[in-house]
User: Fold these one by one.
Assistant:
Number 1:
Amino acid sequence: TDLTASKKFKDATARASIISQNLDSEGGLRDILKSGDDAKKLEQESRAAMTPDMLKAQAERLAADYAADNQNLDVTKKLADTYEQLDEHETALSFYEWAYHLSEKDPSLEKKVSALKEKVGRAKVAELRAFIETNPEHPEIDKYQAQLSEMKAMQMAGLIAESEARVDKNPTDNELRYELGSRLFEADRFRDAIKHLQMAKRSPSLRIKVMNMLGQCMSEMNMNDLAAAQYEEAINELKGMDDTKKLLLYNLGLLYDKMERKADSIEALKQIYAVDYEYRDVAERVESSY
């Protein structure tokens, strides 16, 4: 279960294989690696091309294999993946949970189980919310609204507790820190979220997302100058105008407006207006300023 030891074991095994088979000769290792990359690409393309009927047939075949041997980790993982592709998330979750048990707690499967639990929970909340919205005159609407509030609170509490347990086990994992920080943010626990988001900011791949969320946390706590600094730092690190930069500029524009820095607010929104007229209510805000 030691991830560092596991990685070094794999590295050592690969080196031993290279030496024993003389694969580090000119072209040898590179050809094998290229072949491996091609095989992986073909597998991904094959999965993407499968129709629902093909996936159902695959699920039936794998289910037969699973019935014959439910201790087979590879079959269990493939069955879980197939049900996930079929969008049968609750069934997929049950098989991923069993695969996680069989793998003796593989961290990648732990993340998959966590992600699917969240997806399944959110789907149930969305289903109940949709029922309430389409049946506002239902005689028991108050009961359903209370159920919705309770369901959301319980789901979020469970997600936060799960994230906290994973962070306790892997305190240096920035992705887990971001996951916990974002869940605390969603629960309006902005002060608690900041600590974990600041640690997640160390990750180059998470920095921009983290700074956007930190800006929102600080804005909610009326620490507007600190929030603006987060948005500005993130914007300066982005060169092109993509959806992420538009969102940051939009959040910064609204924050400047909140701070009564009207000119700065419009200047931020103008940058979006120049490339995307239809982005949210940017056109209305910019044109009304003239």
Number 2:
Amino acid sequence: MEGRVGLRVFTPSLRLSVPLSAAALLLAAALAIACPFCKVQEPTFAERREAATFVGLAEVVGHQGEQTTCRVHQALKGTRASADDLELRLAELAALRPGALAVLLEGPAWSAIPVTEISAAYFARAPGLRLPASARLPYFARYLEHAEPAVAADAYAEFARAAVDEVAQVAGQVPMPALRRWLVDPDVPGPRKGLYGLLAGLAPAADDRTANAEVLHTVITTPASDFRAGFDGVLAGYLLLAGERGLDELTARLIADPEASPADVRHLLAALRFYVEFGTAIPTTRIAAAVRPLLARPEI
């Protein structure tokens, strides 16, 4: 097994033909350094809480027409008094029975997250954005693939929105045996496997790196009949673990084979772009030589 692969400190390279405003530059840089294999469109709970003027844990009292009466039991942010009754018209509340719990956010419009006692505790304790990612992400690592969908989705989003070097700092605190199970579990959403593949490649412990490489190799070599969401992250993780040997394997499997799926080839190109920016063990000249045959494939 290859030794641990370090990560380059990322400096975004913006090759654009039009001038960019300062705000656009900052946005482009922020998007560039986040996990390139993760698809997250909705803000995380911490981001929503930061933007809200009030956040509270409330209980559904009852419904009247389209309105739901909620009683606030605990203010998580803001000064609204406990036991306030709120009349809200929200689709997230309409299906909840009296006695059900929800986290309510005001800012400026109201929104709600239905919760149980377990997920309510998760949201109440979620660390704020003012802490560094190295202090925040270990909290969310414990909740990846949690049984409650809202919790699992939010924990994934926290990692997906973090910079790659920040994710690398805390990869050792992710439960690697569970991560390996998620990578081969057909019930785990494909887009999340892009993150899990990257995390597998960033594992610091030698035993985990060996086991992770075996699992990623299994995922890569298992035939698939359709588009594989997150496959680019799986390939990137394998490159981080296997180095030049991994590049040779993937080149033979996806570039040298004219029958290889064009979608899988594009996933490999995304993984190689990532590696050029972040990886250190494979010379860029070797990567360039590996992809040069694709110039003869018009569909690529």
Number 3:
Amino acid sequence: MTTVLTLNPGSSSVKASVRTPRPALTVTVERIGTDRARISGPDGAGRFTGDLANALSQIAGLVRAAGQHIDVVAHRVVHGGPRHHRPALIDDPLVADLRAAIPLAPLHLPGSLSMIEQARRLWPAADQVACFDTGFHAGLPNRSTRLPVPAELARLGVRRYGFHGLSIASVLHQCPSLDQVVIAHLGSGCSVTAVAGGRPRHTTMSLTPTGGMMSGTRPGDLDPEVVLYLIAEHGYRVDQLRAAFDHESGLAGIAGGRHDVRDLLAAGDPAAELALDAFTGSAAMAIASCASTLDSWQALVFTGGVGEHAEPIRERICARLLAVRGGAAEHGSAVRQLAATGLRIEVLTADEESELDRQARHLLAR
């Protein structure tokens, strides 16, 4: 029986799962880099200090303590760059390609590469497999991948890649009947994707995960002149802009550094309320724009940590979408009112771990 360890690093979290393929051990580290970071495992939850490397060291300790022998390590990799879309065995040339792709996902790829290198040392006899979040979107139509920039810039690789592909694939695996569907992955990072016939029609994130709708610490789409203005008039450097747009914008930019939706919902102060208002508006507009690429909008799925667990956020988003569906806002649940227009609404778990396991097993079985 093959035992697979899935590693799913995010911008502020890492999830690990030992699978046979049934889950045998699950470990989650959340809010990395904050004073509220916690690690949850088979023996309960506790405080966590450190970075992704420390998280993997503790995960490895828990795997050893559980007596698990790892045959395969499946890594979620946010961006495969222009060359990698399908799951692939990790070797030195692949690692070199991912290093070259860091400018396309500067918030995620350095941590992923660090985790890959550490995992190769911790489990040297195991097959190491990379599964790419951009892979699902390799089937996007040209009208979506081709950005409205000069051909010279397109030749330089400026195009839409799309992200959260493993999450979307897991949703479609859970509900094969879904079609003509908009999938809203709302978490620390947020994107919205339209899917028809199992293939993507459009997605909101673009060249990097910084674009699209607003996220926890990222602004989403911005007027390009904002960047040029800051460079020309205020002398901002690339590293300063990257820090501002990847770590200090989005919900955090409006709410004074706070970006956890749970905290903002509990706070109730004007800055928190404005941040949530902007966030739900951005999500609703992204959902409506993606729906316009479908032949007939039949379903809406909420997934990701916020999409799955924050009912007030789903309510606010659905209230904004009523006008799009020809519904009238009334008292009571906006989700139910939107469903009454004939739209199928689902809340599904973003089970990226099961998708990592499936893709790794499929690759190695070939």
Number 4:
Amino acid sequence: MQVKTLGIVGVGAFGEFMIRHLAPYFMIKLHDPDRDLALITRTYNAAQVDLKTCATCDIVVLAVPVQRLEMVVKEIATWVKPDGLVMDVCSVKVKPAEILSRHLPTSTNIICTHPLFGPQSGRRSIAGLKISLCDVRGQKGKPVAAFLRDKLHLKVIEATPEQHDRDMAYVQGLTHLLGKILTDLELKGIRQTTKTFDLMMEAVSYLEHDSLELFKAIQQENPFVAEALARFFSAAKRQEKDLAQL
């Protein structure tokens, strides 16, 4: 990929996590009006810039919550480069794909991604971890997928936004709900545990630092979560009934 500049809009937990993996390959420009980025820019030789400058990079990665995505996309729409590439990293894909397609110029390449890991699960290494890639519009899908595979050593899963959200309704919608429930039970003090229990609590530990904003996005912005949770609660009620009859 012959790309020199990459702008990241939104330097929260995941936005910051991305920088150290992308800095070796791009000139990084950062925009986040809510954070002092001085330490990050010094560490990674990046530049803190205004939103317009960030939006004119060769690649623009929107690392903002899905609830704020439309507002940001509307603002940058007139600044993105002709034939530029705009990507997002939201945990849902149907809504971002629709927003980006509707508001960005038709000449803009659009790829919606969802890294299926985060700062906790990828703290040691991201090599071999999975990323969903939805090639929404343009000609950049193949080179981006190649970069993710060959340079970052990620396992790229190509899907449509709908296919992604249907899977995530269970993978995230159900998992994050169970994580919330198990966290509320405060089970960390138990010493006599099985391997299965330890693995379950390890999984919960990956979720306990996630923001409430992310949890709301997973539960409320995925159009298929309601159906998945209805099936889950129905199955739980059947199990409760069966236990009462033992």
